[in-house]
């Protein structure tokens, strides 16, 4: 696998923020058109991600990389799903719909593409979960849920059937907020049409975390690393440029924050991130405990 965990973390390091608890997300005043355009922004990206990889790597390239024929065939189906999501959201938005941007995806071969696919699908699941509480129109919420579970199936298929890793993280998937998702995908954008409406989101500065040493860059002593896994957030102090995090399972996100109280972590106090921590969830270990205990 070309992509190490640290490479993947670096890719996502520039991403955005996570509004913490459910109540806070629900108080969002972001309107449905903005949320649909946010979803369409992500679907345009996923659509280009798959279409670009399939154009770049033909059947012979997948075979040479050691993948059976059905892998690329299934990616063609996934690509058609993403096109369908784009068409659906574009239809709902009409003339308000954002148009696709130019992107730069760092896949160099089929293996680095399949690794990045699992990560992007994970971020997609977290994005829809994080946005769900802000959607006002019940029909849009149903549609978003329908797309969300499909992206989760993509993620599960790529992770298990193709990458021979885990298909899930634990009993709960992890919601992340608009700005954290925005920050996560920002590195993939080259430029967008000037006619696209500006969305009210921002990207946080990059955060990196070295799981081997605990070293962090992009945040400093006196600040905290907020760890998001499932529905829980916990904070851990940065000391001597390092943080001691518990062992995570599956895919977790971290941001750096000036706030010690985990229930208050959100856009107002996040200073960097997110980064993604991937510890493949082994079949012979127990589920994560139902909640982290804040280091506070
Ligand atoms: C953290 O913030 C919440 C919400 O304001 C509050 O109820 C709780 O007491 C705070 N916890 C600590 C340890 O200060």
TrEMBL record:
Keywords: Signal. The keyword Protein biosynthesis does not apply. Residues 1-19 form the signal peptide. Coiled coil: none annotated. It comes from the Eukaryota. Pfam families: Ferritin_2. CDD domains: Ferritin_like (cd00657). PANTHER family: DESICCATION-LIKE PROTEIN, OS05G0151100 PROTEIN. This is Ferritin-like domain-containing protein. The lineage of its organism: Eukaryota, Fungi, Dikarya, Basidiomycota, Agaricomycotina.
